[in-house]
User: What shape does this take?
Amino acid sequence: MKIELHCHSTASDGALTPTLLLERAHARGLTALALTDHDTLEGLAEARLAAQRLGIALVNGIELSCTWSGATIHVLGYGFAEDAPALRAALDDLHQGRWLRAQLIADRLTAKGMGGALEGARAIQQAAGDTENAPARPHFAEFLVRAGHARDRAEAFRKWLGAGKLGDVKQHWPALEDCVATLRASGAWISLAHPWHYDFTRSKRRRLVSAFVQAGGHALEVANGMQPAEQVGSLAILAREFGLMVTAGSDFHAPGEWSELGLYRAPPDDLSPLWRRFTDPGATQQGVA
Ligand code: MN
Ligand code: MN
Ligand code: MN
Assistant: This one.
């Protein structure tokens, strides 16, 4: 079975609609896929229709943002019921927070003589795929380019949207413990996404994994795309030490970038893959279409 457990659609920051994503997965010979958009379940209904048409097993998935020790951390949830009240309530809070943030960015741009940013960013976002989510900084960047306030997106970030600039409005995320608790209350299988991506020392990474285990997490994503084999090895050591299961996935966002659907290093054979829990009939919890 060729499976993909980490990928994004236009429901968050991916370039392909859920339908196009599933079609690409099918063309690449994948037989099971978890759509893990950032902090939203919006893509799942469309993904399920496409998966059923193409004969791909769709696993309900999500990549949630949270905070731990001052850093923004990503946690993957799988196999939950799409209508789980705990997850729905947490996502409603985030959804509201993102619109407030988008409004604040637009207000600050207006104060600098760049009006119409919310509507403009929203139009750019909608052109890529219908969503009820608030536009994010890349959409604002594209708006600033098209409105003639910046030469390109890079300049838009450098002058207005990047770290420390007026459009750098921080999203408020829940704590790691709360995020994992929400997923547990929703019947999800939980994996700590790309533990190597953070600018942490070895001991801080180990403390993160420890906190994740304390909170009730189940697995480590030991392979994120084609990340170096020695990193996969180090993460596998942590999985063994803490008795965690493992996941792997491409983290695909867009064609022609650094990742591709179904392309990731294989985790070491001695480790227990989390995906057996929701792809084996009988072992399944819920949420497999
Ligand atoms: Mn992303
Ligand atoms: Mn991530
Ligand atoms: Mn991701």
The beta strands are 3-4, 32-35, 57-68, 71-78, 189-192, 219-224, 245-249. Residues 63, 74, 193-194 surround manganese (II) ion (ligand 2) (CB under 6 Å). Residues 85-111 form the longest helix (27 residues).
